[in-house]
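[DERIVE STRUCTURE TOKENS]
===
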Amino acid sequence: MTEHQRRHLIRWLKETLNGRPNSSMLLSQVKAWLYEHRLLIAGDRLLRTLIAQAVRAYEDEMEEVLLNTVGPALSDYWSERLVAQTQDRISLQEWLWSVPVRNSTVQMKELFGKVEFLRFLHVDARWPEAVNESLIRHYARRCASRTPSANKRLAQQTRRINAACFMRYALCAATDHLLQMLRRWLADVANDAGKQINNGRQDDAKALSELVQAIKELAANPAMAADELRAALPRLTDKALPRWASSRRKLVRLQLMTKSTQARKVLPKLVALPFASETPHRLLDTLAVLRELYGKDDVSKWLARGSSNRLG
């Protein structure tokens, strides 16, 4: 293999590593590439050396991009803080990698704490576009597969890359889990309110059956006079009529308003998250109004009556 062929192969390996950083499958791909370009296939030892050389060169470029965007001070701080212990005597790496075991407001509070902590570490700051999601996922999982003590013994370059990708992946995973749990929690609250309304509402079929049975009993009573019969029929019909004139949707909304204690605890933390959209959205305008209200020392914390934000 000549020198220019070697450089061509290294350049192809770098392009292959972008988006598919798993180097364990590269040996067979390198052999296929050599066969397609009608080059003599070298031994596995030489090919593995070239693969390791390409990986080191690729990680050198990746570290340079991260340092130019994030900065060396913040990158080193992430790598040091990741292996440090928390108040529960577990490492920050183990705490961030843990997933919620159940859908509850307690678990949501923990996820809010993770997101707030990662934002405090400026993980949500600028991120290089060259480090895509596949690279973030690969290096984050590689960092999580090692113990914190093993990550502490790695080289500085590897620690920087692993810590940065791990922090970014933890922020994305915590946000996704939080929104998913919030969606499930809202659905459960709405379903519980609907069940309570259904249990308290009058059964129309049962009321109609009771009305028919009562009319049959009146008709079968020969001792009842006509005046008494005419007076009894309006009472039966009034009893069979629905007791609620409001719609089911309105009743469910009123039921949800009576259980707003948990929602008031979740909403201030939710509106504090920096939501964004590529196009203008009405939800962002409503969140801006709520963020302004919850930022004040106002006890009521209600929307202004003149607000024109409608979500649907």
About this structure: The mean pLDDT is 77. DSSP finds 14 helices and no strands in the chain.
